[in-house]
What does this fold into?
Amino acid sequence: MLGAILPGTQHLQNIHPLVVHFPLALLPGAALFYMLAWLAGRESLAWTALWFLVLGTASAAVAAGTGLHAREGVMVDPTVREQLLDPHKSWMLTTLGLSAALTVWALGGPPFPARGRSLFVLLLLVVLAVMAHGADYGGRLVYDYNAGGSACGQPIEFTR
Ligand code: HEM
It folds into this structure.
């Protein structure tokens, strides 16, 4: 059914690559709108930021769930699993934990916690840095070692 609408999905070994781009886009959106709300002193922008944060965290949970499921079946060399897949998992679960904590904090004083605002924004930027670093491992899994793909023979031993 999905393959009829989106033929490219027939080549996917799992649905993780279909969902990862939601947190990758929504969490930076949350940081951007919180900073704009702070600078402009506009409450309406902070509500937009909160929606980005809630949706970003929810989609990060879906990405983490599909990633953990993909981990079981993805065919990669044990060296690649150790050097790239395991660090990817750790960084991304840290991303999810941090963004979930910030979401709980924001929902405790919506839309923008009145106390500790600078720490809140700083931690949002930390989430982005952690997520970008972790996603880099994910990209290397796919583009250097053909994880989840069928472009060439598997498994490829880790070299760099
Ligand atoms: C916030 C959560 C997560 C995000 C945003 C994320 C992001 C990514 C990205 C950007 C890629 C490269 C995809 C591509 O370029 O096509 C990737 C690949 C991958 N990730 Fe994650 N990831 C997350 C969590 C996890 C977790 C917890 C695991 C568990 C080990 C995992 C396992 C994988 C695997 C196996 C691949 C290789 C491609 C595949 O077979 O699906 N990911 N991820």
The helical segments are 2-5, 16-19, 21-40, 43-73, 78-108, 117-143. Residues 57 and 99 are 6 Å apart (CA to CA). The mean pLDDT is 95. The chain has one domain: 17-143.
